[in-house]
Amino acid sequence: MDQINPELESINSLQITTKINNEKALKKMPSRTAQIRLMSSHEEVYEPCDDSFALVDALLADCNNLLKHCPTLCMEIGCGSGYVITSLALMLGQEGLAVNYIATDINPLAIRVTRETMDAHGVDAELIITDIASGLEKRLAGSVDVIVVNPPYVPTPEDEVGVGGITASWAGGENGRSVIDRILPVADRLLSEKGWLYMVTLIANNPSEICLYMREKGYASRIVIQRSTEEESLHIIKFWRDLDIEGDNEKASADKSAPGRLMEYVLTQLPPFTFWRCSDRDNK
């Protein structure tokens, strides 16, 4: 019988022990994003998908800036399953920041699912059933430091926009812009002087046009994350107030800045993609 080298046995034992301890440590470490296994769901509520993950990844990529930003009020418009607002609360909560959260959705079932998701992760938010921010604009005007939104961006017939159930989560009307164009001015009114907006857009939404519209409102912008699949090409765009261009709309329109021209060039060079958003719609 072969004899076992005591030194080799000791090394193997140490490696196994180290691996077990590392796994235990990882389990104890609080997650910075919502866990799929803890997510609540309903057949009429949009589940986390590529666009949800891209938005949360953008927040993670910008997390250091968010922490330095020290927001006191964060808001999600169209919370769906609660994956994004829960992830944001987990990111900021680990640093002990005193942040209040608000999330809205036109779908009552989405509000219920978001509540269950947040409860399962030990975080909290004020959840409100409303269309975008209807009834809240006076109360929240100029006070929201961070807004996140994964809007209905898929080009659809206009008669699908705003209908009940899960369809409201994807139906964006002509060019996928019907709901986006309603959200932008609301976000402008709600954002504080240091407010940031993170928005998911599709190539078909003409992101460069969206950026130009926000520039006229006094906002600079940049693409935080670009993610392409066989089905779609997504851009997560961050907007923030820029004092250098605020109130100078005529000059900004006549003489676009180099970053603005560069963004337009990059966006127009990207190939077109078909429009898809993972949901039960594909099985109907």
From TrEMBL:
Domain of life: Eukaryota
Primary localisation category: nucleus
GO cellular component: eRF1 methyltransferase complex; nucleus
Localization in the cell: Nucleus
Keyword Transferase among UniProt keywords: yes
InterPro entries: DNA_methylase_N6_adenine_CS, Euk-Arch_PrmC-MTase, PrmC-related, SAM-dependent_MTases_sf, Small_mtfrase_dom
Residues in Methyltransferase small domain copies: 74-154
GO annotation (BP), single: methylation
GO terms assigned for molecular function: nucleic acid binding; protein methyltransferase activity; S-adenosylmethionine-dependent methyltransferase activity
Alphabetic keyword roster: Methyltransferase, Nucleus, S-adenosyl-L-methionine, Transferase
Matches recorded under PANTHER family: METHYLTRANSFERASE N6AMT1 (PTHR45875:SF1)
Similarity annotation: Belongs to the eukaryotic/archaeal PrmC-related family.
Designated name of the protein: Methyltransferase small domain-containing protein
